[in-house]
Amino acid sequence: MIDILVFFLAASLLLYILMGGSDFGAGILELLPAGELRERQKKVINHAMGPVWEANHIWLILVVVILFMGFPKIFTTLMVSLHLPMLALLLGVVVRGTMFTFRHYDSIQGPRSQGAYTWLFGASSLWSALWLGIIAASLNRGLIDNEAGDFWSAYVAPWWGAFPLSVGGFVAGIFGFLACIYLLGETEDEALRRRFRRWGAVFNAWVVVSGGGVFVLSLAEPVSLARQFLGHPLAMTTLLLATLLCGVLWRFLVKTRVVWSRVIAAGQVVLILLGWWLLYAPNGAITVQGPLSFYEQAAPEATLRQLVIALLVGSAFIFPSLVFLLRVFKARRPGEEEEH
Amino acid sequence: MAVAYGQAMDDLTAARATMAFSLGFHIIFAAIGMTMPFLMSAAHYLHLKRGDKVSLELTKMWMRGVAILFAVGAVSGTVLSFELGLLWPGFMEHAGPIVGMPFSWEGTAFFIEAVAIGLFLYGWKRMSPWVHWATGLVVGISGFLSGIFVVAANSWMNAPAGFEWVNGEATGIDPVAAMFNRAWLHQSAHMQVAAVQAVGFAVGGVHAFLYLKGRAPELNLKAMKIAMVFGAAAALVQPLVGHFAGERVAELQPAKLAALEGHFKTSTYAPLTLGGIPDEDTETMHWGIEIPGMLSVLAHRDPAAEVIGLDQYPKEDWPPVLVVHVAFQVMVGLGMLMAVLGLLHFWFLKKGKFPRWFLGALAASTPLGMIAIEAGWVVTEVGRQPWIIYEVLRTQDAVTPVPGMVYHFLLFLILYLGLGGMTVWLFARQIRVTQRKVEAS
Ligand code: HDD
Ligand code: HEM
Ligand code: HEM
To answer: Residue ranges of the domains in chain B?
Structure first.
């Protein structure tokens, strides 16, 4: 049971990063200077993200529900120690979600209001991506302390520092990169495609550079990512493989082979997460008091069984309906005017 | 409410205020998200059947509204699912495994809802008209289901079931029994009817107002009629469902019933008090109108039945009587008023003509349903105090140890007030544009 749940947890997280992530990345892209392409880019992003926007962020809710039902101790530990970054993340999620929708559905599309929506959407996307990375980094650095006496070590130290911030930068890079790869296939407009390719390259380079930074900075951490990697050949291999794939991705990108680019980009993310998982499994978090293992912190069997049933039945509805959604909107007709 | 000891808000009060405010905000959008898709589908149906332009215009106008409101509902709901842990870790640690089940089903319902809304909003030209119509209906159905699930989770806090509480730990957990606890049926039924009622009156009221102002009369009259069919029907059923809820509360949570009636002393032939201000210190009611024996009848179907009063409980186990009583009077009073309006609506609908005074009354009752929902939740949630899980875990033992909660509260206060303001502003803009469009054609 626990294995199935951990699988669902990992799958939801992965899907959130892939689908929600490209959504965040689109926001980051809109924050970057775009000159006269701005309007066209906005339109493409609206049409590419609009239909899936709602579905994308439910993966996050699924992560939360699996955690609090299946692994309540891990959930509450994180929500107490990481209260502040969680709050920051929520703030971003609220602003970006509403601004994206308001921008599209405002019936008077004035330049000032549209500009304000776009800026808020972009800034909050970058903000949320940074905090997601910070939270991810805080899970396993061994500073979460449920017994700490003072404010700093209980609620700030667990996520404070250069290392979590560098992971934030890394995550923002991945999101931007995913967005470029995704959007590339959503438009026929050559100028835009050039832009997405160019920024895709920049983000990709940034991911490699900031990834290096993460590695170096982690050397000073109590539980060091870098040293763990070095001691784990398999995890090391996944990471190297992910890096090597950059070269392959390049070739497909240059030729605008949309499907392959997407597959490889997704593959890279899977490999990075896999490496992470190999290092830390089966722990959901590492605290000062020791690791919190999914196996030791799970809810009683009766609960796990119900949760698995709900997830399996849910999947039987969710995946077909998602496929249907994608099928309906993939049949892209060039130059088509949407009506809404 | 037991408020502010000392200068600033203490952490427990701030956490409660945050929860109350976040939920009070979310519920407005949730109610709309559960009901609007049905109104929209009704208008859309009329268009597809008869091909009239006005119904199409109306469908699209409502659709834009739904899209905006849905986004606010979704993000505020996401906030809530985090806040359960951010504010009440001591609660979630125990309650998660017991009552997580409705939340996990709710997740599935959200997914279907999210996919369906994507299809409906963006799929006008990509599906056959009736398939497209059906996606709109699916939004409503799955939204409705998610409402039932989440209220089932809440009802468990009122009627804990499906576990045994031994030495501060839950054992023998049975999530199915927890979900179908003794309070789930009355709470879910009452809430779902409330959503339909509140949204029906809100939408009907706005359109009645616009009609009276002479704006796009055909569109607004049609909109008013569609919305009010839902609102009026729900308003007529609601007192019955509410009465059912009251009977269940009398059985499950006598202290809550006593608080909402301001019933201090256990007695037979207990009177029903209309209005009035309860005084906790002297344990008396001031200025209420008493109907002898009526409370015994309502709670136990027998004027001679004994109704437990607050005197059966130590004072530290009392909910804040004043707040709960006033909220209950507001809810019931508005419920009765809306039932009368609902009856009148059907009468005038049958006659085929709505007098202006009645439309004016409808316009004036735009916010009533939403106010009743907020009041109803205050009755339920504040009436459960001081317990977070009734007679199992106290709210004060569940609150987060994180200090400075007042800043958390202020952050969301500002954020949500801003969002609420923007939503209203967007709607004003939209109404203006649609009317110009309809009047021009
Ligand atoms: C349009 C909204 C609305 C209206 C008109 C009414 N209610 Fe209500 N009431 C609610 C909306 C609501 C609610 C928001 O849906 C609540 C809060 C929690 C719940 O389950 O339902 C609620 C709770 C609630 C409770 C507490 C249930 C519990 O804690 O388990 C009682 C006893 C009643 N109601 C009784 C009534 C009666 C006798 C009404 C007479 C007309 C009435 N309500 C009208
Ligand atoms: C949307 C409608 C709801 C509203 C308006 C609402 C309102 C409130 C209010 C006013 C409080 C503060 C009570 C007090 O401290 O005096 C509260 C507390 C709380 N509510 Fe609700 N509630 C709603 C639904 C729910 C649901 C569906 C759940 C859970 C499944 C829930 C869980 C809680 C919890 C955990 C607390 C904090 C503990 C407590 O004060 O008892 N509420 N809510
Ligand atoms: C603690 C209490 C609650 C939690 C944790 C919660 C959680 C959520 C979440 C995560 C969403 C977003 C789903 C999406 O993205 O579409 C949402 C939306 C929604 N919630 Fe809540 N919710 C709570 C209370 C309620 C209550 C009391 C109701 C109604 C009775 C309700 C009804 C809905 C509905 C219908 C939606 C669909 C979206 C919309 O219409 O805006 N929720 N909720």
So the answer is: 199-401
